[in-house]
Amino acid sequence: MNSSEFRRRGKEMVEYVADYLEDIEKRQVYPSVQPGYLRPLMPSCAPQEPDTYEDIIKDVEKLIMPGAASPACTELEMVMMDWLGKMLQLPEAFLMEKGGEGGGVIQGSASESTLISLLAARTKAVRRLQAASPEMAEAAIHDKLVAYCSDQAHSSVERASLIGGVRLKAVPSDDKFAMTASALQEALGKDKAAGLIPFFVVVTLGTTSCCSFDRLSEVGPLCNKEDLWLHIDAAYAGSAFICPEFRHLLNGVEFADSFNFNPHKWLLVNFDCSAMWVKSRADLTGAFKLDPVYLKHRHQDSGLITDYRHWQLPLGRRFRSLKLWFVFRMYGVTGLQAYIRKHVGLARELESAVRQDPRFEICAEVVLGLVCFRLKGSNKLNEALLEKINTAKKIHLVPCRLRDQFLLRFAICSRVVESSHVHLAWEHIRGLATDLLRAEAEPKAAAAEIKN
Ligand SMILES: *Cc1c(COP(=O)(O)O)cnc(C)c1O
To answer: Residues bearing N6-(pyridoxal phosphate)lysine (predicted)?
Structure first.
């Protein structure tokens, strides 16, 4: 949608809301639809090709308004999470259409998804241990529980362990910045020998520092064998798995108990929208369910409905699935795939430009839209380059430290980015590097002259 259409549609939307408010007395306060009304009225997959905006708005009036906020909000979310799950080729166990044990839910953030998984896993572990040894007190169990992630995991995993009150061990990653099964096995062995109780593992697909991928297909079976909850954090990279050529990066998801990524990071959906799937919804509802009288509702025990309040921290929920519905239909699966491919292509273009300048080096494999690079030389030199880039304020880069190296990260992530922007940015960086290297060389040259 270009900006002139966006202006027109925005104005139409204000009219729609104003009409709604003016005519609100004519609308029913409670919907007449039955639970489960929506799914049969909708296609079972996202469209491959884009729909028109008119078609979508017509469907809002036809399909959503009769269901008002409830049950439409829950039911559209269930269908959208299935559409998205199918785009990612998730195993059927994570989908809801056949009424299985698993399912998807929209959370606000990847941090929340990790926390919820950790808390559910903690409850499950405590119950399992107490079933085997009823004399064990819950507090004594909490004291021994250990969660694991790689040393490249996002800080939100450590926060989840702090909030959840359990130990967290960072498993050393290998030379590709990935957690391997043997490194995890070693950590588990040590902790079990010390009397601790491993219960939860976070695998990261697409780490924040350098977009590395933990070895899911070997860590997964180990987690299953050891009875550990496996959570996958693919906050950034997950969007790419809608492309068949990147789907292999998700191989092993069948071993996971929970999987999460953020469509708000790289799938054209506005903040916030974090997609989370679990293999067994009872793990969440079993851990977090409370039913005070003021929250009881008519169909509660009918077995017909999904009650998302038991899947999340807050009680109230936003109608976030509308954003998914609009985006999936406006772009179509092919449009979304093209968007991901364009960004990955631009990252590769930048990578080859960096490789053509012998002063620079690429520091981690470029898999998706992130390019990690540095000037050959000291960390101090690279810190000075970053400082120059960020004070010039033409572009903004966020650095990272990998092992002992300070590096610069170039992330392709704008909806409107073009090849020309990437090349302009790179020429800008090269120019600043030239200035910096010259300034570095001058005092040395001057010193050499004095000596002579
Ligand atoms: C961005 C990111 C997060 C944090 O996401 P929030 O939704 O802001 O909590 C967590 N993990 C990874 C790998 C990320 O890239």
So the answer is: 265
Which residue CA neighbors atom 8 of ligand 1 most closely?
A: 109
* Interatomic CA distance for residues 235 and 250, integer angstroms: 13
Query: What predicted TM-score, i.e. pTM, was given to this entire model?
Result: 0.94
SS3 assignment, position 249: helix
Nearest Cα neighbor of 266 from 339, 345, 157 is 339
Instruction: Confirm or reject: Cβ of 111 under 6 Å from ligand 1.
Output: yes
Name the burial class of residue 171, with classes exposed (0-12), middle (13-18) and buried (19+) by CB atoms within 10 angstroms of its CB: buried
The amino acid at residue 450 is I
CA 228, 229, 230, 234 dihedral sign is negative
Q: Which domains does the chain have, with CATH numbers?
A: 75-330 (3.40.640.10), 333-451 (3.90.1150.10)
Instruction: Dihedral sign for Cα 68, 70, 71, 75, please.
Output: positive
For the CA of 112, the nearest atom of ligand 1: 9
The pLDDT tens digits for 35-52 are 899 999 999 999 999 999
